[in-house]
Amino acid sequence: MAEKKFVEAITSMEEDFAQWYTDVVKKAELIDYSSVKGCMIIKPAGYAIWERIQAELDRRFKETGVENVYMPMFIPESLLQKEKDHVEGFAPEVAWVTQGGLEELPEKLCVRPTSETLFCDYYANCVQSYRDLPKLSNQWCSVVRWEKETRPFLRSREFLWQEGHTAHATAEEAEERTVQMLNVYADFLENYLAIPVIKGRKTDKEKFAGAVATYTVEALMHDGKALQSGTSHNFGDGFARAFDIKFADKDNQLKYVHQTSWGMTTRVIGALIMVHGDNRGLVLTPKIAPTQVIIVPIMQKKEGVLEKAAQLKETLSNFRVKVDDSDKSPGWKFSEQEMRGIPLRIEIGPKDIEANQCVIVRRDTNEKITVSLDDVNTAVGNELEKMQREMLERAKEHREKHTYIATNYDEFKDIIANKPGFVKAMWCGDEACELKIKADTTATSRCMPWEQEELSGTCVCCGKPAKTMVYWGKAY
Amino acid sequence: MAEKKFVEAITSMEEDFAQWYTDVVKKAELIDYSSVKGCMIIKPAGYAIWERIQAELDRRFKETGVENVYMPMFIPESLLQKEKDHVEGFAPEVAWVTQGGLEELPEKLCVRPTSETLFCDYYANCVQSYRDLPKLSNQWCSVVRWEKETRPFLRSREFLWQEGHTAHATAEEAEERTVQMLNVYADFLENYLAIPVIKGRKTDKEKFAGAVATYTVEALMHDGKALQSGTSHNFGDGFARAFDIKFADKDNQLKYVHQTSWGMTTRVIGALIMVHGDNRGLVLTPKIAPTQVIIVPIMQKKEGVLEKAAQLKETLSNFRVKVDDSDKSPGWKFSEQEMRGIPLRIEIGPKDIEANQCVIVRRDTNEKITVSLDDVNTAVGNELEKMQREMLERAKEHREKHTYIATNYDEFKDIIANKPGFVKAMWCGDEACELKIKADTTATSRCMPWEQEELSGTCVCCGKPAKTMVYWGKAY
Q1: A5 domain-assigned
Q2: What domain range includes position B409?
Q3: How far apart, in whole angstroms, are the C-alpha atoms of residue A398 and residue A222?
């Protein structure tokens, strides 16, 4: 049977999660591989999700006073080198343009891996007085990092993102903004993508090159691996000193600005897939889904069926609705639309029409309800809302079920080896323990959560007095 | 006086048009120069215009069935070289990445100057049957062309654009799409940006590298120079043959697809400035303006003035309205908001409030009308509509006044030398005449307009029998 073949085309996640992921990405037509090694083609179904992510994040950024700009995609080598930690972090993984037209360039240019240096250069020019502050900028663009191993959405040589960059008069304001934007990400992830996150601070080892503090939102995927889903950095005045970004304050003193940056990438589409997907394919939340409802006419050649389906679409004009009137069989359409993750399917055939009803099927639970065509608008609204809520609840449950506590190193190693998920454990603050844990288990510190707990008094690795609780885990 | 200083900061367009342009671009805060030679920073005021252009064009594209995608920004040298004319046209002006991370690349990659080759590679993979056609794709991205001389918006090494790429089963369908998209551009330019355009076909000399036919929309700037404002290309099956893009047709025969591409860039912001701007700065059309109405409170420290201004903003919530309540003087605010091109200014002070009225000032004509606060919503709507209409009328008048006819070469040379504008003249179709005209006068063929006229029987340059009427002009 054709339907069966279609579904069989994806590996089950229990059998091979990595292969399942790749299959979904391909079969849901999100991505295609390109002739450019390590770069991906984002196909219409994938890009439509990104457009909705963009629209929603952009709206939230603008509500906080952020303005969009566009910076050059190239960074001269000398500019990249101005901040020492930053260049050390990024230089090994950038792509270099050495030739322009037919000539060798006098100075090589890297393709931006991130744009702190360009924004600093810009702010150094346009910030003079406290009246010019704060500067709240963002840009939507692609960036390049020359990764050795790549995977669709999760790690590729070029990816799409937004990068926000701000400059402030005081350290307090910069810290406030860093936290504010992390909260924007967390709220977006939880309430829009139904991905619950742990908010916390990165250890010094894991923080952004050049930052004083990096905050992160960490999510747990279905296979128990962690995914860093957004970061927000406080730079203090480090970049300002390197780039000489000074302003005359109200007291007429020349002072350095305090800066932040924060970014979210197409990676979150990978998170969406790995948190909600199942063995029938992608599952999109009602809020993110480019199409929320797919109407599948049954026996569509019978008189009146397609007309009724079109009418139904009209009735549901508050939602994003499509009718699949292609000449495939209903069963094939079901499988295909399930693969694409469309939240609700509505079946309507001659018998339904006679009974003035239709059948609504939820993508996540496969639950079917029969509703009167008079109530269908309300029913669809209710189902979408319920689905959005329950998807978050399920993801939370899954994370709680896969979050463990370790109070000694044997326990820690046993959990990491046998129980995929987050491990909460105390840490002394010494990078040596982080390195040892990574060497022994491949797990890394995900974050020092804002919500701290006192699990024990000693570091899970070395046994010395503990300073902080850390979430650990294997990560993408 | 501070106000005077602000206005004096721009050169008058009669004195030095090029300097006027640069001054407006800087003073209206659209652009900043960057440390990257030939690349520009698009500042918030400039980017907000681009965002509105994007939203409107994107909506129009999608209405015609186009879907957005994202292709890699790099093109391997071997892929660029597959279509012979195309590579000859672009290779001399691309930037080459030769190093990734710390290693030399095995094959150098160019930063896309345009993406035909990538789309062809993609279509070759995903088009098998007539059922897969048409493919209607678009992407919003930046592209790089290594120009020697650059000017903000008009010519820069990196610029933003959209590039549409389509593949069709028949030559007729491809031609239809090429024309359709040129009409989308023309309609957008005329009805949204109030820029009237000549629609026509490029000569073989001026057409896109690899195209069978290039259609163009040509606009006339205030200084009488032409600006190519959007192009749409029909590729026939040339790229399909080079990239082997075949499909099984309904008759079970393997056939090559027929392709098109079409693009519009941040250049149109340059056109917007040079068609509508004046000696007080930028003038934005009501439809494109990110802010349509700026409310300037008079004697704002007096009790009730700022409250009334805020109320007025509420009343006008159908429009894009801001209140300038900064502590600058009203005169300074007037000049500054005029420089930014905001279509309407509303002045409201204690006397106005007492009389239940406000003063509306149009940016383009400086016309002032006093209206009752009870009617302000309707009045603003009317004024914006009138302004949008009249801006197009004025631009049309200007173009007609600066469009000349030449029937012999002396006349032609005289007009080009002394009367900036379009020259309509007959052409034999021989590239030698185009080259001679360019060498003698620096004018180029702008297009062979769809609306042809029979001005005389002979070529304006060589006197041989003429084939077609051509618009000629000096161009940006």
Answers
A1: no
A2: 403-473
A3: 8
Instruction: Return the ∠ at Cα A146 (arms to A144 and A151), rounded to 5°.
Output: 90
The ipTM of this complex is 0.95
In-domain check, residue A3: no
Three-state DSSP class for A251?
coil
Q: Which CA distances in Å does B55 have to B261, B290, B438, B455?
A: 20, 12, 38, 41
pTM: 0.96
Any A CB within 8 A of B55 CB: no
Q: Domain check: are B297 and B211 in the same one?
A: no
A141 to chain B: which residues are within 8 Å by CB? 142
My answer on whether B209 and B335 are in the same domain is no
pLDDT at A465: 97
What is the helix (H) or strand (E) element at residue A398, kind and residue range? helix A376-401
Is B346 inside a domain boundary?
yes
Domain final position from B221, B250, B276: B276
Write out chain A's pLDDT in tens, 476 residues. Answer: 344 455 557 999 999 999 999 999 999 999 999 888 899 999 999 999 999 999 999 999 999 999 999 999 999 999 999 988 888 888 889 999 999 988 999 999 999 999 999 999 999 999 999 999 999 999 999 999 999 899 999 999 999 999 999 999 999 999 999 999 999 999 999 999 999 999 999 999 999 989 999 999 999 999 999 999 999 999 999 999 999 999 999 999 999 999 999 999 999 999 999 999 999 999 999 999 999 999 999 999 999 999 999 999 999 999 999 999 999 999 999 999 999 999 999 999 999 999 999 999 999 999 999 999 999 999 999 999 999 999 999 999 999 999 999 999 999 999 999 999 999 999 999 999 999 999 999 999 999 999 999 999 999 999 999 999 999 999 99
A73 contact residues in B (CB cutoff 8 A): 39, 73, 111, 142, 144, 158
Tally of CA atoms within 13 A in the half-sphere of A367 that contains its CB: 11
Residue B75: list chain A partners with CB under 8 A.
36
Q: Does A142 contact B141 at a Cβ distance shorter than 8 Å?
A: yes
Whether B110 has its CB under 8 Å from any CB of chain A: the answer is no
The pLDDT value recorded for residue A3 is 44
CB contacts, 8 Å: B68 with chain A: 44, 47-48, 51
A171 touches chain B (CB under 8 A): no
CA angle centred on A149, ends A145 and A151, rounded to 5°: 90
The answer to whether A146 contacts chain B (CB < 8 Å) is yes
Residue B138 in any domain: the answer is yes
CATH number at residue A43: 3.30.930.10
DSSP B365: T
A76 touches chain B (CB under 8 A): yes
| Range of weakest confidence among A297-301, A447-451, B146-150, B382-386 | B146-150
Q: Which of B32, B33, B35 has the highest number of chain A CBs within 10 A, making it the mutation to test binding with A?
A: B35
Whether residues B247 and B139 share a domain: the answer is: yes
Please indicate, yes or no, whether residues B168 and B43 belong to a single structural domain of this protein. Answer: yes
Q: By the CB < 8 Å criterion, does A65 face chain B? A: no
Specify whether the backbone of A281 is left (phi greater than 0), alpha (psi in -120 to 50) or beta: left
Same domain, A297 and A252: no
| DSSP letter, residue A475 | B
Do A97 and A138 lie in one domain? The reply is yes
Q: Flag if B144 and A44 touch (Cβ within 8 Å).
A: no
Count of domains observed in chain B:
3
Report which residue type is found at B19.
Answer: Q
Choose the closest CB to B101 out of A67, A126, A146: A146
Which residues from chain A sit within 8 angstroms of residue B74, using beta carbons? 36, 39, 95, 158
- Using left for φ > 0, alpha for ψ between -120 and 50, and beta otherwise, residue B127 falls in beta
Q: What is the CA radius of gyration of chain A?
A: 25
**A324 and B CB contact within 8 Å:** no
- Which residue reads 């397609």 in tokens? A306
Q: What is the CATH number of the domain that holds A435?
A: 3.30.110.30
Q: Is the minimum CB–CB distance between A158 and chain B shorter than 8 Å?
A: yes
